[in-house]
Design goal:
The complex is a heterodimer of chains A (647) and B (335). Chain A is an alpha/beta fold. Chain A has 20 helices and 23 strands.
Chain lengths: 647, 335
Amino acid sequence: MTNETTHKVRSIEQVVIRLAGDSGDGMQITGNEFTKTSAIVGNDLATLPDFPAEIRAPAGTLPGVSGFQIRFASKDIHTPGDDPDILVAMNPAALKVNLPDMRPGKTIIINTAMFVEKELRKALYVKDDGTIINPLNDHSLSNYHVIPVDLNKLALEGTKEFGLSPKESLRCKNFVALGMMYWLYSRPLEPTIAWLRDYFKGDKVNFANANIAAMKTGYNYAETAELFVEQYKIPAAHLPAGTYRNVMGNQAVALAIAAAAKISGVPVFYGSYPITPASDILHQISKYKNYGVYTFQAEDEIAAICSAIGASFAGMIGVTGSSGPGIALKGEAMGLAVMTELPLVIIDVQRGGPSTGLPTKTEQADLLQAVLGRNSEAPMPVVAASSPADCFDRFLEAVRIATKYMTPVVFLSDGYLANGSEPWRLPDIDKLPKIDINFRTERDGFQPYLRDPGTLARVWAKPGTPGLEHRIGGIEKRDGVGSINYDAENHDSMVRLRWRKIYKVADDCAAPLMAGPERGPLLVLGWGSTLGSITSAVEMAHAHKMPIARCHLQQVWPFPSSLGAILSRYDRILIPEMNLGQMWRLVRSEYAVQAYSFAKVQGRPFTTGELFRKIQQTLELPAHGSSHPLDTKLERASEVAADVSGG
Amino acid sequence: MISPPLTKNDFKTDQEVRWCPGCGDYAILNAVQTVFPMLGIPKEKFVVVSGIGCSSRLPYYVNTYGFHSIHGRAPAIATGIKIANPELSVWIGTGDGDSLSIGGNHLIHAMRRNLDVKLLMFNNRIYGLTKGQFSPTSEVGKVTKSTPYGVVDQPFNPIALALGAGATFVARSVDIMSKHLIEVLQRAANHKGFAFVEIYQNCNIFNDGAFDHLVDAGIRDEHLIALEHGKPLKFGKAKDKGIKLNGFKPEVVPLASTPDSELLVWDEHDPSSALPFFVSAMPEGTMPQGIGVFRDVDRPTFDGEMAAQHANVMKKYGAGSLEKLLYEGDTWKVG
């Protein structure tokens, strides 16, 4: 669609928009389409979907609100933004839930059709005496730039030529809203049109046409009704040269699973039981049968991991994926993989807990479970992805370690990475890391626990290989021959051997991501999905001339061997985590260093502002000091972060 | 290269067998080591998988590939093994506690899917390795270490459970009836699909004589009934009794006054599992307990269907290209 507008088009560097509505309003689809289009026009971007655990909470209620935040920019960005510049509220509940995140002066597009008594009541816009409050009329929004639009009417009128029922027509209203946003930010409609034509094929083509018409209605209405003073343009970001695609964390894991099979030449077996937020990995890779990927939807979490262990024994790369509650169920079998020294990758897409917790929200509180959460001495390496695209590299690294050292490896992701997205500069296929797997076939000198003296990995001899028949199991064994052995000295030596093998990874792993001066007053130590927030806050601190540094762990356990020296070069260590100080505990116990904990467990990522504020505060605190995550004497940075602009 | 035929000795390991002297497990091990060389399968293609319990020591004593895993999980481990390599002959050694209690979920789902494995369930109606608690097949009222006033749980009927879960081969034998056991194991081996074999096994330490009332040489003919395909069901020391179906109800009838034509003729290939279910549910004590093959029907195997689906997808789309997978779709170029 050409832009024949007479509106002034202003070029801006970045925008944060949030689309919010009922979970039946299609906000996630709308958000994904906007994201894809923004990626295609070359913006850097980051997204934060936020949806309820219920499939459909009662329509129009506060728990049923589903949101999708996207930040897109012509510069390099690391987070989906602290607070939105523009909010689209499809109903009163969406307004009520999201208004606290809107700073004064920002824009709110409101679907006026839903601001009627029935809907207002469902959103609890009710006074104590039972009378209704309508925020459109009571001046409570006077600090905002409110744009009222009857999206329902536009949807009905825009799709009337397609013979849909009123209910069907109203379901197109998210595309009316999307069309308006496309006009406002000068985005092309074609990618979404193509997607709709593909999504509604055959006898459903009428729905494709209706949604396209609805989107054009929104686009044209935004232009002709002069809703907005200005139209904006966000030029393409100056990203490094290459081919890009937008990718969500779970998608990147799925692609890495196919890549692992292709690179190694050994099929991957994925045993899994559906669980939020990990299930999308299973969905995606179940299509990859011609890539050497085998998927098994097991009867439970235990069968999921045990089948993967069985597949590893039989010569595939065993992988199992779940979230925290499922990992807890897998614990005993993870110990079996330690004992039998079989390669295995355990994917933990962390979510809020404990127990069922917050299934659709993010958290980093499975760290100690990953490192230590099994009976007895059952060590295994843990790697953690730090961005949606990094899920690809980190997963391949997990497979490399698992097969090189013949050990289970935990790959940590989380809900924010799994469903959040960013542009991904696609790797050169020829330059992907090598995964060399050699199955033992030589009979001479064969023993099931024969080890490589360098890595301490045992041999991998798969059933079907003549002459190498052997038995493995969970009972303690004598090294080499692998026969059952209960002797005291032997057990002590085997326990140490298994630990020593894992510690070898400390010298053969991804280095921490460093930024800032090599020594100084403060080091921000992070791991996992907080990389974006920490990087933004550190950049903001650098802009304020604070000589602070960042160290972000990709290899989480064992710690990379360089970490001790790094920690010793700074006067203060600050560890922000979406848990109550789990990395803080590990670092202190491993290195006997003091560190300040910044712990937040709210089911959502850190904002740049609150992290920056915390950095400022920590610089005022004593050198080589420590704060406990439960220490309430320290001012909570998040409560005073409001006046710091997102960077 | 032609190798000499395998013998029983080829399937013995150097491990000292550590079951209690007099345990029924020795007889089962002997039957397994007798049957394996008869199957024409190379030694390296066997995998014996187990969970936890006395029975689950089986892999250590059979000189093939073996995996002694964790409690109850052998069917899940075996599922991964069979998907990874459907050509392997995978056997599971398990007990009544391992498979019906802690591993019940894996067992029923492996049977439902018709995974092509052979499961030998050593049923001694007691927990042996943990030293004498009741099991899910212990009879009501049984006094054990954990039930000083008697068991109040109702036991599982393993054959009925297997039939209900859709196992395509269901059989029962007895540890001390070695000829019968060997025949049943051969039948199981030759079945393509899930073979569930319950073996009455005496634990002479914690539940000695649990099956004496059924299997003692002097009385077994009165208490066991051999199920033979195509033959009317008859039993008794003097072959003087038979089973007749009265509606849905099997009844013991004297042959003196009942012509063969009125007896139930055994059909192990009946697609419906209703008939074997009736017979499996005949009450112990008042009616004979079936031994032999309750059910043997053909159904596509899970691992076979999965392999076929992979082959079909591969045929339809060709081997996937990683380059295409990553670079296709909504991509854009910078610079």
